[in-house]
Amino acid sequence: MLSVDGLTKRFSGLVAVDDASLAAPEGRITGLIGPNGAGKTTLFAMAAGFLTPDAGTVTFAGEDVTAEPPHLRARRGMARTFQIVQPFAGLTVRENIAVGAHLHHPSRAEAMERADAIGKRVGLAKDLDRAAAGLTVAGRKRLELARALATQPKLLLLDEVLAGLNPSEIRDILPVIRAIRDEGVTILMIEHIMQAVMNLCEHVYVLAQGKMIAEGPPIEVSRDPQVVEAYLGHGAAARMQAAGGADA
Length: 248
Prior knowledge:
The protein is α/β, with parallel strands linked by helices. The protein has helices at about 40-50, 70-75, 95-100, 110-120, 135-150, 165-180, 195-200, 220, 225-230, 235-245; strands at about 1-10, 15-25, 30-35, 55-60, 65, 80, 155-160, 185-190, 205-210, 210-215. The chain has two domains: about 1-75 and about 155-220, P-loop containing nucleotide triphosphate hydrolases (Rossmann fold), CATH 3.40.50; about 85-150.
């Protein structure tokens, strides 16, 4: 569904993403993980068209979309959420979702009907008539997800949709994400919460200092010495191995 090949992005002298490649196969949940500042959101922004890469290509459903702006990618069926949620505070939850629905439903009545259905799907049924400004953090995260879903995506890019949620809220939203996948939407997600990555993702890519350093099933990636070093610092893998040997 999505393939990014050799993406590079520089900001003045800083190379934020350096020759990074990944693929998100149709009908699966793929994860992108890495320490803070690794370049994950920059990579997402290039995939979605919000940033233009200095090198590399983005292919969506077999078509090269590297030069396309975000609104054309949205029409093709690509949608993304944002790490910092910014709903239209003066609108109701229903109206916020309808903004996304208008992409394919020009009539207000159709867009509002679609918004109702999407709101119920993500657990916002009781909040549809509330002002978006009054939502909790968990509610705002669900609204961000709903607005993206309202565009009827084939591919959903989720940027830390679980950030700021407590364990109970995370537990409640995981089935929602699985259900979206089960209904035919391919998902590529950035996530720091490893329990969620283990539960949701079938394949994971690891970005560190702008470079892809590992990929594979989550359990294998979590044991990769390079990944341990990237998250926990120099010498961490050796210390963990030594501690494991001592315990044995």
